[in-house]
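Researcher: I'm preparing a figure for a lab meeting and need a structural model of a single chain. I don't have an experimental structure, so a prediction will have to do for now. The sequence is pasted below. Please return the structure as C-alpha cells so I can convert it later.
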Amino acid sequence: MSNRPPITARNPRVDLLRGWLILLVIVGHIVLGSVHEQFVRYAIYAFHMPLFIGLTGYVLNPDKLANSSLFSVGVRYWWRVGLPFLIAFSFFTGILFLHAQEEMRFNSDMVLGYLVTPYYHLWFVPTLILWVLGFWLLLKLRFPLVLALLGSLAVTAVWSMFASAALPDLVALLVSKKVVYFFSFFLLGAWLRTDAGSRWLRSVTMINVLPPAVILISAAIYLMHIGPEKSVLKGVAWLMMNCVLILISVKWIQAHVSVKANKTTQQGLINHTLVAMGRVSLPIYLWHVVPMFLLKGWDIHQTQTWLYYVASVVGVSLIVAILLKMEGKNRLTDKLVYGN
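Model: Understood. Here is the structure written out cell by cell.
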C-alpha cells in the first residue's frame, strides 16, 4: 500500500503558501535597486523562487504524467500555461519592439534574443515546461528519481559556490541557465511526493527543532554575505536553506491534506486573499509587472521615485483585485488568462 499523500484533492495550504510567495515576487519586483545591493530584494531572492519551484514539483501528479504521451503532456501544458504565457509574451515583447523601432534599434538579433530569452519575469513559464518534460522523460525511462535529484543538486551546488570565471567554459555555460540550476528544487518537490521521499521526509523531520535551526543558521550566513561574490560557504548555506525550506513546507502541507477548501474562509481576510492569490498565481505572475514596466519605460523610477512606488503599489493592487474578481466569470477569459 502506498504511503504517498493523496494528489487529487486541492490543499488550501499549497495555495496559501503560493499566495505568500507571489506577494514576495511582487514586492521584489517593485523595490528598486540591484538584487546584490538592496537588502530587501537580496533576502527575497534568496529563497522565494526555489521554494515556489519546489512546490510546483510537489503538486505534480507523477502517476498521471508517467501514463501520458508526449503529445498529451504538450497539449495539457499548452492550455494550462502556454497560451496565457504567449498572450503576456506578445504584450510585453510587442511594446519593447515598438519602442526599439522608434529608437531605430530594431533588428533580427533583438527578435532572436527575446525569443530565446523572454522579457524579465517571463522566463519561468517556458522553463517550467522544460522541467515538466524532463521529469516526464525520467518517469518514462524509469530512471531512479533519487539519482537524478542527487545529480541535479550537485549541478546546483557548483552554480551556487563557484563564479563562472572559475569554471571551464562549457560547464559555466551549462550551469548558468535557470532551467539547469533550478531543476534540483523541482525534482526535490517531485521526489517528496514518492513513497521513498515521504518516508525520508518523516525521518528527517522527526526532531522538530532541527529544520528551523538549520534554516536560521543558513539564512544568517547567506544574508551576512550580501553581494554577487560566490563562495563555498555562501553556496552551501543557500542550498541548505532552500532544500530544508522545501522539506518543512511540504511537511506543513501534508499535515493539512484533508482540510476542505471552504474552511479557508474562516481564517480571516488576509489569509483568504492570499489563498485566492495562490490559486490564480499564474496570471498574477504574468501581469503584475505591467505598472512597473510602463513606469520604468517613462523613467519615472529615476525622476520621481515616490511617484513610482505609489503608482506601482496602486497599479499592482488593481491588477490583483481584477484577477481575483474575474476568476471563473467567463470561460474564454479562464482559458486565455487563468489557464483553467
